[in-house]
Specification:
Elements lengths: L15 H21 L9 H12 L9 E2 H12 L4 H10 L11 E4 L18 E4 L4 H4 L9 E3 L6 E3 L8 H4 L2 E4 L4 E4 L4 H13 L5 H5 L12 E2 L3 H10 L1 E7 L1 E5 L2 E6 L6 H13 L6 E6 L9 E5 L6 H11 L3 E7 L1 E3 L5 E3 L2 H42 L1 H10 L3 H9 L3 H8 L8 H25 L2 H19 L6 E2 L10 H4 L4 E7 L3 E6 L16 E8 L3 E6 L3 E6 L11 E2 L12 E6 L5 E5 L4 E6 H4 L7 E2 L13 E3 L6 E6 L3 E6 L12 E2 L5 H5 L5 E7 L4 E6 L2 E5 L16 E2 L9 E5 L1
Parallel strand pairs: 8-17
Antiparallel strand pairs: 1-3, 2-3, 4-5, 6-7, 8-9, 9-14, 10-11, 11-13, 12-13, 15-16, 18-19, 18-20, 19-23, 21-22, 21-24, 22-27, 25-26, 25-28, 26-31, 29-30, 29-32, 30-35, 33-34, 33-36
Length: about 750
């Protein structure tokens, strides 16, 4: 079988590396220059520019009747922008949304989306659109020789390369886009402020950034709200072209309720309500009773938060909501723009305005020169027509008798080709005597205009004056007051979780196998609760639901969990191992709860221990914090609450039935460690397992001690404790016969 021979003659060959590199670079430059980034001249991307131009060609100016959006989209993608219709329509919608664009370019009729869902707009077959009056600042000078033109994608039509913007639209409406390897995020600004800065820079080319910032106070967003970034941050953004802004919702108190009337840019009111409602469901906003959305046509944004009482700190509540919801939002700023040289770069405010003014001066110069050329051309034609009127009989004779009258007219009266052609195209009705007077009047008017144009073109000062007057006129016509207030405020701080939880009394119950639950109230008897098969009660602690629950394990590590998040005592609880990561083989020895300043006694069976403030024991780590360092074979004892009141005693018991009570002041207060010797246990006997400390508690002043031995409980009143009083680290005295196997000690409160 004959093999197929391939002929590569005339085919360009490239290494794969070079081809892929060139293809990717070409694609990157296309995305950067022709899709994602705005141009400094008109502040538009190609699709936006083509939509606006196509609408002007359809006659959809501000004063005309709107047409179906599908008609506009069809013209755009059929004549200038051969891409998807949905993407084109979405770009059109964005320019019509008053909550997205500071100065909308398109006036839409129908459903064009809402702040809650900007993309919930009707299909293009239902909506109608025309241009707004502001669009005239982009298009008004288009036919006056101000723009370069290029063929469209199939070469059958021409389209403008740039629009001759009379205002720096790139700053006024801003832009955002993601290209290849770069992006842009330009916030919108106030027209009057930006125009004032342009005029100042036009009159004072050496103006500093600080001088310009006296006019441009900061971005101005269509949805209002508050710009709370510090002045130093704003200056840094305009100096470098990069940074972040903090926007905060506007609110006020109204008859004891909080009314939110303005949201940050591109924030949905529905999403904010969902975020607040989610916190309410999670019981993280106990100070809020109700939440309502009262937005309507007259009040586009009106969210009402009803506090539970007048004692609620409104400022603290709003600061918490600013920190935890979209009521405060951070916006990125990146002034990445395609400059006059056709290259993208990040610009500072002064450089941006200076380059746009350079473009504006070029545009006005081209416009004036275009008009001057028209005037001079018309004067040239009028000069020829005047010659014809002065020699009308001879002109008529030449036209009637000559086969080719144009060259004869040119030779007879010294006319140019253009003048002779204009004479030949005259209508008979224009041969009246009155026309001569009209020609001379038109000549005088055009001559005066020519002189005026030449003076302006010949003087930079007059050219700048004209630009300044036009900027001022446009600012008066299209400008408005600032919507976004600039207020320096402290950073929002979320309320501590414990401050958001109601302080209800709870009893924490820990089982021997490490299952935990929280019962409401302090009256419950933990030993009477039901436990899983093979499990039993180990320890309990009483506190408040807004406090941290801490758990001490057999290795001396302490773990923290919010008490309000523990399972209810109606069931059998949950294993702590599901929420914490104790070491392998470790078990839990006790539970602690209380105020941060409360002290607890931590001790080990070797007779050592110390007092620890709860604030020092807290740990957010699932693996806990190593606090009690027990030596050798020592086991961790159940922790006990402590008091530093004068007269308080520490009661300790050994496995040999000895009881020692000493003043609590003799124990050190530590954050972690082994502590001091509490009960005099001989090291040899402890090592041999013959004696150890089995229990230790702190007795408030004048409090009896309950000694548990098996199922029996003996109460020792304060006077009964005198035989057992001594100094720390003593051996103590023997308990009565039958009570020397101590299982637990606890104060009789």
């Amino acid at each position: 079988m004959k093999e197929l021979e391939l002929n590569f003659e005339g085919v360009e060959r490239l290494p794969l590396k070079e081809f892929t590199e060139k293809a990717y670079l070409d694609y990157s430059m296309y995305v950067i220059l022709d899709r994602a980034l705005p141009h400094i001249t008109d502040g538009l991307k190609p699709v936006q520019r083509r939509i606006i131009y196509a609408m002007s060609e359809l006659g959809l100016s501000a004063g005309q009747k709107p047409k179906k959006s599908a008609r506009t989209v069809g013209d755009v993608i059929g004549k200038f922008h051969p891409h998807g219709d949905s993407a084109c329509y979405e770009a059109m919608v964005l320019m019509a949304q008053s909550f997205s664009y500071r100065y909308p370019v398109i006036d839409g009729q129908g459903n064009w989306g809402s702040p809650d869902d900007p993309k919930a707009f009707a299909a293009m077959r239902y909506t109608e659109a025309r241009l707004t009056p502001y669009a005239a600042t982009l298009l008004a000078e288009l036919g006056q020789g101000t723009s370069d033109w290029q063929p469209n994608f199939d070469g059958t039509l021409s389209e403008p390369v740039r629009l001759p913007a009379r205002l720096p639209n790139v700053l006024l409406n801003g832009a955002s886009g993601i290209a290849v390897g770069m992006s842009t995020d330009i916030p919108p600004h106030n027209l009057r402020e930006v125009t004032a800065a342009c005029i100042h820079l036009l009159e004072h080319p050496g103006a500093t950034l600080d001088e310009l910032l006296e006019h441009v106070r900061g971005p101005d967003f269509p949805t209002g709200a508050e710009l709370v970034s510090p002045a130093a941050d704003l200056r840094a953004i305009y100096a470098t072209g990069n940074g972040t802004l903090r926007l905060r919702a506007g609110w006020e108190r109204e008859e004891g309720e909080i009314v939110i009337s303005a949201l940050p840019w591109q924030v949905s009111g529905n999403k904010v309500l969902e975020q607040i409602a989610g916190q309410m469901r999670a019981k993280k906003l106990p100070m809020v009773e109700d939440l309502r959305d009262e937005s309507d046509h007259e009040n586009p944004i009106r969210l009402v938060i009803v506090p539970r009482s007048n004692r609620v700190d409104y400022e603290a509540l709003m600061a918490h909501l600013f920190a935890t919801t979209d009521l405060e939002r951070t916006i990125r700023v990146n002034l990445n723009i395609i400059g006059l040289d056709g290259r993208p770069r990040v610009m500072d405010l002064r450089g941006l305005l200076a380059e746009w003014l350079e473009y504006r001066l070029q545009t006005v110069t081209r416009r004036l020169q275009h008009r001057l050329d028209k005037v001079e051309s018309r004067l040239h034609v009028l000069e020829g027509l005047l010659v014809a009127y002065l020699n009308i009989d001879e002109v008529i004779r030449i036209i009637r008798t000559e086969d080719e009258p144009k060259p004869v007219l040119m030779a007879s009266f010294g006319l140019s080709d253009t003048q002779a052609e204009a004479i030949l195209e005259l209508k008979l009705r224009h041969l009246a005597k009155l026309e001569e007077m009209k020609i001379r009047g038109e000549q005088d008017g055009l001559a005066a205009e020519r002189d005026r144009l030449q003076k302006v073109l010949g003087s930079k000062a007059r050219l700048k004056k004209l630009v300044r007057e036009e900027l001022t006129a446009d600012a008066e016509k299209h400008g408005d007051d600032r919507r976004t207030a600039i207020v320096e405020r402290a950073a929002a701080q979320a309320l501590d979780e414990t401050a958001l939880v109601p302080a209800e009394p709870v009893t924490l119950v820990l089982s021997q196998r490490g299952w935990v639950r929280a019962a409401k109230g302090h009256e419950i008897d933990p030993s009477s609760l039901s436990y899983r098969s093979g499990d039993a009660f180990l320890a309990a602690a009483r506190g408040r639901s807004n406090q941290a629950a801490m758990f001490l394990d057999s290795t001396g590590r302490v773990y923290s969990l919010p008490a309000h998040g523990l399972p209810s005592a109606r069931g059998q609880g949950e294993p702590l191992s599901g929420r914490l990561n104790p070491p392998d083989g470790a078990s839990f020895a006790g539970v602690l709860i209380g105020a941060p300043e409360d002290r607890w006694l931590l001790a080990a069976s070797d007779g050592y221990g110390f007092l620890a403030p709860l604030a020092e024991l807290a740990s957010r780590n699932r693996s806990g914090k190593h606090v009690l360092k027990a030596s050798g074979k020592a086991r961790v004892l159940r922790p006990a609450p402590a008091t530093l009141a004068e007269g308080a005693l520490v009661a300790t018991a050994s496995s040999t039935g000895k009881l020692l009570c000493f003043p609590v002041a003799e124990l050190p207060e530590l954050a972690r460690g082994r502590g001091n010797k509490m009960l005099g246990i001989e090291a040899k006997k402890f090592a041999a397992g013959e004696e150890e400390m089995v229990a230790a508690v702190v007795l408030p002043p004048d409090t009896a001690l309950k000694v548990t031995s098996g199922q029996r409980v003996m109460t020792l009143k304060p006077r009964d404790l005198e035989p057992y009083l001594g100094e720390r680290a003593r051996r103590g005295a023997l308990l009565p016969r039958g009570w020397r196997k101590v299982d637990a000690l606890e104060p009789d409160l």
